[in-house]
Amino acid sequence: MAILLTKDTKVLVQGITGNEGTFWTRHMLDAGTKIVAGVTPGKGGNQVHGVPVYNTVAEAVKKHGAEASVVFVPPAFAKDAVFEALEAGIKLVVLLADGVPLHDAMEIRALSRQIGATVLGPNTPGMASIGQAMLGFIPVWLADVYRVGPVGVVARSGSLTNEVCSHIVAAGLGQSTFVGLGGDPVPGTRLTEVMALFEKDPATEALVVIGEVGGTMEEEAAEMIERREFTKPVVCFIAGRSAPPGKKMGHAGAIITMGKGSVKGKEEALKRAGALVATRPAEVGRLLREALRS
Length: 294
Known about the structure:
By secondary structure, the protein is of the alpha/beta class. The chain contains nine helices and 14 strands. A seven-stranded mixed β-sheet has the order 3-4-2-1-5-6-7, sandwiched between helices. It has a seven-stranded mixed β-sheet with strand order 9-8-11-10-12-13-14, with helices on both faces. Helix 3 links the parallel strand 5 (68-71) and strand 6 (92-95).
């Protein structure tokens, strides 16, 4: 089992003929992803790694029944690409682009919520159901970083994910599904929405949350745990401990505003809710072992 994505999910790649789309399509195929079509306007009739290319998403959905899309397009065209996928009936969209305009991100979230679809990103590395399929650019072939196991992982940071997941594997565990939320102020999917999916997943016995300074998603997660709407063990690492107030730290959403979003505030809320909090990534594996023994 997994959440959102399995080996049977029919996937299309928007922007498949670009350099990044072509490169990562090969890796996604190698990871087991069932890529049935690609879309690049004006390039219909071509093939990339044996995958047929179409001019529109609607055509690819009609011919192959695609259910999910991973979007390799520049930020200026991201909203149009996501809207095209959603309007064609795609229910899972992974938007990788960094620098998507804030208003576009707000419209993307509004439409996806309205029609009951899931959009991950913008500014996400993607997602992977370990041992089954991958959307985006997750190095699932690294055996000392990713291994099939009982730990769900959800993160705002892509680079930190690889480090934390390596400590999960070093502790003798592995991952069920990794979900990258993205680091922008308005993510298509929020942390608690992903937690609700992990709560229902029988393959997930514990959850690792990789948060960061800024925003309120981690506090919302703490409230969800306190309400007993998420009942599995939770281990958290919040990045940005030394971030000064008002200073953006890497991600557009990683900024303390009006006194809210500090690492200290997030950690205190999570501890009150019963989550275990790591002060550095290397502690995550040990805390997971403790949580799963209790």
